[in-house]
Give the backbone structure.
Amino acid sequence: MEGILPLMKPKGMTSHDCVFRLRKILRMKRIGHTGTLDPDVTGVLPICIGRATKVAEYITDAGKSYEGEVTIGYTTTTEDASGEVVDRKTVSETITREQILAVLTKLTGTIEQTPPMFSAVKINGKRLYEYARQGIEVERPTRKVNIYEIELLDERTVFSGDQISFRFRVTCSKGTYIRTLAVMIGEALGYPAHMSELIRTSSSSYTLNDCLTFEEIEKHVEEGTFQEVLKPLESGLEHLPKYKINDKVAEKVKNGAVLNTPHELVHIEGPIVIESEENKALAIYIHHPSKADMMKPAKVLSITNE
């Protein structure tokens, strides 16, 4: 059994919880997720099964889209609705649509974020949430992330009330904390804020329409049709550049050979999928770090190398 399962992650479960439950349902261990989703977040979580676990990191590195709600008026320890309130300020003025749109424009592009204390980022071998649960505040490195697009999903022209909530859609790079983005939106408007709701609508090439619930998965397992609903390993690599080779070169690739870099690949940065004439992914290559005009395998995917 192998392939990629776009899971509809339910609320209240961690990504690891989802993997643990699938291992019990499928009765196999070789299962991995493609990046942490907080328990409060629902939506698209691609799960790699069998040999497809080899491409998990490439799906994790791909872009993601979310739809969420930001609430302005108070912030929490976790920056989402599950945390304890740590700062509250009544919204005493009317906020216009133009003000919000200006903030969203300002936060589009490359921005800097500081990971929240309640996150899985490791500092000195320990995850931040472990420090947070002990009441220990540690210095966290600021990092750059890319916000490709933010769209306001609210038709109002003015926003008023002691607290203000509005929905938004964001497409972003790996490593972006949407709850931190919600806090940043509030700060730019002059108020504490938090992310009150979030759903991941896409991850790599997978969307909500592709996803199966746990109940649907169990039904397919019972009926013996589960393999039929899995996406092929190649679907997790759709966002990467491809290079097709003939069968003679394919044998070298299956054995992990270092190859001359074709002229058309010289200027491509990052991983390249080497595929057969039948469009099957054989390996993922990268430019050789010390040999000019050569490329080496980062990951051999061929089943003959199992």
